[in-house]
């Protein structure tokens, strides 16, 4: 059983390092040098033990004055060389380790950007940060360090075992056997900590989530007096983390004291048997002191190898998690034969379309809708009826469950994701703005836009007067998520961004519903500018804003119940649209 566990461990060791080789490869020379430098560092440990034999025999017993001064000098010289090599190896190890970590984080970040919206819907922020950032730190933290330590300890052991056998092969055989026996308890450690490790990761990610929520929701916490609630919630998470830390300690920290006891038995046996050999004249006193020193130097780092082994396992498990992420495939990706989507189109058709987030619970059913180029289609209906879901299927935030969406007869899944999304601009109800300046956020629509194009976008988004009143103008910092701006200002920046993108298809997802009347009027003018010469899908909260749409589609409970122009739908007695319109008109009246 122990042999089988050892084989599995060795295979895992090789596989993990093979998996990380592409990240080590660009820096292989420095990485190899840092590892190779560990060999003489380890071998020089045997010098001190080896030098004690002539020191004891020639100085302490034979009273040689010449040996009394040159042996200490030799020890100092070799120790100085060892110290210099140790510094060089640690420097290279840190340099290469950081570079490898950054490469791995970059690949993980690129992988994260490929995942579909549903992936992020199912994860909290702590999970995402831990998966794509902390795992990389854990995987790389011990990558070179563990290899360097292994090489160093290996050559230390070789040099010290040589000293042992040089002084007494009988004692060396006994003590080496005890050393091998000390490693047997390590074989079961990985299985013991795997389940606890998974729970610890979940707890740590929950902790990060609470921090993120407290940062993003600080106004809600303040306005609802949720300070005590959040403190209790945070304390509960900390208690869970504490319990898991203790459980991890219970399953791993026993190894060090167990090895300490086993190796202490080895030292005891060496002293007992060594004394017997001295009395028989088989070994000299100097040889025994040298042997005992080498044995202690060999055993001492082995006593703490449990902690080092634990770190190795943590690193390997992190590498396995990283490998699983990098090997995973997003649910939404390009087909092998996908082709670019042309900018010009004549029709967009939703054909027998159905969709469900959870299997067996349809959100949209049998949607059939044809949109001509340049038309404005308004989607209205009851809250939660599936309007946002329907337009989210067009840029493939999600993929349809059955049926399809066709542009000029071609399934959108046959187009590359990049070209499909390049042809669609979206203005959400709550648009995300990045930390930075107004200019940087607008330019995300077209990073190659000229100053004239930028200014046109600003003018068309009705931002000219607002920006002119700012001290730094378009280079004004807006804070994380645009926290320093009002809702209307954020919406207009998002509209300017969409205007600069100049895509032929435009989605407006309740872009004015969260604004007051004054802000809505300004934003509505900007939207009307943006809609010119585009195929537009509008999800409208205020029905007065979509009266001129070419077609109004009423979506209730995942189905199209009515469609037509405003005049056509308003004339239907007891119709769904007329009921919505009359209800809203009465409220406004």
Question: Secondary structure elements and their pairing?
Answer:
Blueprint: H1 2-24, H2 28-36, H3 38-43, H4 45-61, H5 65-114, H6 117-121, H7 125-141, H8 143-167, H9 169-182, H10 189-216, H11 218-223, H12 227-252, H13 255-280, H14 285-303, H15 305-327, E1 347-358, E2 361-372, E3 376-380, H16 387-392, E4 402-407, E5 410-411, H17 417-422, E6 424-427, H18 438-443, H19 451-460, H20 464-468, H21 487-501, E7 505-509, H22 517-530, E8 535-539, E9 551-556, E10 559-564, H23 566-570, H24 576-588
Parallel strand pairs: 3-8, 3-9, 6-7, 7-8
Antiparallel strand pairs: 1-2, 1-4, 4-5, 9-10
Q: Which descriptors apply to this entry?
A:
589 residues; alpha/beta; 24 helices; 10 strands; 63% helix; elongated
Sheet with the most strands? 6 strands, mixed
Tell me the strand order in the biggest sheet. Answer: 6-7-8-3-9-10
Poorly predicted segments: 1-10
What is the CA-atom radius of gyration, in angstroms? Answer: 35 Å
Quickly count the helices.
24
Structural class: alpha/beta
How would you state the average pLDDT, rounded? 80
What is the helix content?
55-70%
Tell how many strands the DSSP assignment holds: 10
**β-sheet strand percentage:** 5-15%
Q: How would you describe the shape? A: elongated
Q: What is the CA–CA distance across the termini?
A: 82 Å
What is the compact description of this entry?
The protein is of the alpha/beta class. 63% of the residues lie in helices and 11% in strands. The strands form two sheets. It has a six-stranded mixed β-sheet with strand order 6-7-8-3-9-10.
